[in-house]
What does this fold into?
Amino acid sequence: MVGSAIVRRLQALGFYNLALPRREELDLLDQKKVGKYFTENRPEYVFLAAAKVGGIHANNTFPAAFIYENLVIETNVVHAAHETAVKQLLFLGSSCIYPGVAEQPMREEALLTGTLEPTNEPYAIAKIAGIKLCESYNRQYGTDYRSVMPTNLYGRGDNFHPENAHVIPALMRRMHEARQRGAEEVVVWGSGQPKREFLYVDDLAEACVHVMELEPAVYRHSTRSMLSHINVGTGEDLSIRALAEMIGDIVGFEGKLVFDTSRPDGTMRKLLDVSRLDSLGWRASTSLEEGLRETYRWYLAAQVA
Ligand code: GFB
It folds into this structure.
């Protein structure tokens, strides 16, 4: 989802010389193959969007896969970038790198100030390691590796798996299918009370390119050598209940919402402070409603295809 959005953005800006190896062509878990690919293709700029991702249930069920795959992908790609003198690299993290209970909205400085939310700790540890890899290579080798921390993402190309997906695609599909069946109820996990901030993936892609295009001195000045990441979000959040109602309106599901409290809520709130990126000249432009409508259109089209 994220990689495709970055490609769309780069192409819209006129970048055409893009190396886009698919998984069958380049397994990022294979250190030798990654090294060989970088040596043969010599990319100048790298967007590291590849990751093992999933919603709260997937994170909780497959912790080994989430920590292992993310650590390996990051170390393979960052090291290969260094060995082949890549000019710039952008690493994508996640807002779950911040403590499970943190002052809201969460500033970049909140990193490593408290314990993590247990449902996604292994994933968060891998993402923190990714930031620290980039910072360490910058400090030791003078490289220009940057990091952005997106809030919860959604949009076209998302994973709509009933159990493993994030909340937006999961509820969109469940409500769509409930409406088709004429079902009167839809289950929403947890209490409905947690609040989340959602960013449309094309906005994220725009932000990624914006951060990559900042002059090195501007990026360095706005961050610090051991606190180099930049939050990307909308600066607004809403409860899962309010989100579910909004998705229901868009999908046309008029039945009842049933909250299944045997499912985890996860962290109660994770709103990002986006003032750093705002001061660097970028702000999200897609409203949640607009983004949800676009995502639903994409989902419907994908059903037909
Ligand atoms: O999207 P989600 O899995 O991400 O869940 P997290 C967000 C909230 O929605 C939780 C509730 O409180 C869920 O209990 N929810 C309600 C549902 N119904 C559903 C449903 O049908 N499916 C899902 N998935 N949730 C993930 C992390 O946490 O966020 C990852 O596990 C990553 O590491 C990602 O950081 C951005 O915000 O809880």
Residues 55-57, 59, 94, 96, 119-120, 123, 152, 165-167, 170-171, 188-190, 194, 196, 240, 263-266 surround GFB (CB under 6 Å).
